[in-house]
Amino acid sequence: MNSAIKLKSILLAFRPKTLTAALVPCIAGTALVRAMGLDWNGGILFYALMASFLIQIGTNLVNDAVDFKKGADTEKRIGPQRITQSGILEANQVMLLGSLCFGLAVVCGVPLVLQGGWVIVAIGLASVLMGYAYTAGPFPLAYLGLGDLFVILFFGLLAVTGIVFLNTGEWYSEALVLGLQIGFHATVLIAINNLRDRAGDQLVQKKTMAVRFGVRFSKWEIASLSLLPFLINVYWWFEGYKIAAILSLGALPLAVKLVRNIFANEPGPVYNKFLAQAAALHLLFGVLITIGFAT
Question: CA neighbours within 13 Å on the CB side: how many for 261?
Fold first, then answer.
């Protein structure tokens, strides 16, 4: 394999299509600060984005290596090819690359710590440690069925409230509501991924929500996570953020289409397409509500 193809494979292992999960809470949280009539800092947004991207990439790489070691990724895998599974890099090399990303995330977090103090240290360290512990360590979250909760908490609630706190020095209930909406849509991606991989995960005792509770439960979970953020928009309407409440409804048709597709199809390769739709839903809702807050 030539170096150009190898480099492309490594970059694809970062799972760039899923990085919207790091992008959306940062831009939406910053727009909320503006909508509240408070000052926002472009430097904070930049460093928060860099740290978030690096933590997610590190988590993806560790997941790649650990799933291969535990037998969850084999030649029978339905989802996209992984660099460890395909032999492009050895598991220890992928783990090292993931660790490097976590280290760089810590470096990017230094300006955020200087701005926000010890509470940001706690959030940052927890994010890095939980990113590693998502599939690795003695209590891997994904293998215990806690992956969905991890995403809601770290890619929703903490991400949004954290960036609002960095800009304002205060904790606001509005940030919690927005974090919940964004966290729900981010979790749709992992729920679809786990439903697609349910059969293989069951063989290696990876007890995701799909493995623990079955296909029907997972389909209803995906439907709930996809549609609840639009129901929560009622909060923004009554709080006076009517443009954000209305504009973000533009993503509702995509959510309805995704839910219909999930219920119409059993887990299989077609779920790769639905995973892309879920990423588009997360991004579209996030961008629309961001524009709504910024208007």
Answer: 20
Instruction: Dump the DSSP string for 137-193.
Output: SSS-TGGGT-HHHHHHIIIIIHHHHHHHHHHHSS--HHHHHHHHHHHHHHHHHHHHH
Task: Assign residue 207 a region (left: φ > 0; alpha: ψ between -120 and 50; beta: otherwise).
Answer: beta
Cβ-based neighbour number of residue 246 at 10 Å:
14
**pLDDT tens digits along 129-163:** 777 666 665 666 767 778 888 889 988 999 999 99
In angstroms, the CA 234 to CA 180 distance is: 14
171: left (phi over 0), alpha (psi -120 to 50) or beta: beta
173 C-beta neighbours (distance < 10 Å), count: 10
Domain ranges of the chain: 3-294
Separation of alpha carbons 38 and 80, rounded Å = 43
Instruction: Give me the CATH topology for the region 3-294.
Output: Farnesyl Diphosphate Synthase (1.10.600)
CB–CB of 195/268 below 8 Å?
no
**pLDDT one-digit tens code per residue, 225-256:** 999 999 999 999 999 999 999 999 999 999 99
Work out the end-to-end distance of the chain between its first and last CA atoms, rounded to an integer number of angstroms.
Answer: 49
**CA–CA distance, 147 with 135 (Å, rounded to integer):** 9
